[in-house]
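User: Here's a chain of 257 residues. Predict its fold as tokens.
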Amino acid sequence: MDNKNQDLQVKLAEFLGWHLGDGCISISGGRSEYTLTGDITEEYFFYENVIVPTFNEIFQDIITKPVVLRKYKSVGVCGIYLFNKQFVGHLVINFNLPTGKKLNIKIPHFIQTKEQKIAFLRGVFDTDGSIYFGRSHVITKKKSLYTIFHYFPKIRLATISKELIEGVYKMLIELNFSPRLQMPIKQRVEDNIMYSVVLDTKKDIKKWNEEIGFRSVKHSSKVEVWQKFGFCPPYTTLSQRILMLEDKLNPLQFYPN
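Assistant: Prediction complete.
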């Protein structure tokens, strides 16, 4: 396999990660629809500069014309909307991707090499994962920097698919990470059970940032704030984090006490 084909195989693996995170296949009444969507505020840059160009490069021989990024401000989403029976059939047949609700999704067998696994993990965590920062809950007589600031990172993926979480857990082990499976939870009676896996050791966070990383600025901006200041305040927006990185917003403002 030449370098160009290898590169496309890796990009395809990353796309499959995006799809298992935020994609959806719908086949109904002779209509075949594919969607891949994200938050219009936090993820527009990611879709515009990464997802849509990569999508068009990978599938240029299958779709009749390049897709364009669509925006739906009324519902706060942006993304790819494609009505194409051939394309949907290609995904279903070649990668065994299910239609409808992603209750029993699993990692496609297509993903085999180390490079593909890295790209897939980055893709699924970029779209459906999260990175957040905790603080120490050790009870002390006096407050310390560790009990005030959110300084230690956790990278987490949560989904209703038990098979996907177990597959991601196994893949992380294969890549020499030390993931933890969290206790399955059900927030409301009518909800599906949520399964999750987390990385939270210093070694794993360093290894993730060096070997996998994030391409979604929604996540990467949090990492950059943490690296610059030693902590990252919770519940910040992308625009606020960009201002912090440009020294136009003091992160201490999020700790008024």
